[in-house]
Amino acid sequence: MAADQLSRVFSALADPIRRDMVSRLTVADATVNELAEPYDVTVQAVSKHLKVLEDAGVVSRTRQAQRRPVHLEAEVFDLMTKWIERYRRQAEERYRRLDDVLRSMPEDMDPTPPREEPRAPETGAQT
Amino acid sequence: MAADQLSRVFSALADPIRRDMVSRLTVADATVNELAEPYDVTVQAVSKHLKVLEDAGVVSRTRQAQRRPVHLEAEVFDLMTKWIERYRRQAEERYRRLDDVLRSMPEDMDPTPPREEPRAPETGAQT
DNA sequence: CCTGTGTTCAACCATTTGGTTGAAACACAC
DNA sequence: GTGTGTTTCAACCAAATGGTTGAACACAGG
Question: A92 to chain B, minimum CA–CA distance in Å?
Answer without folding.
Answer: 8
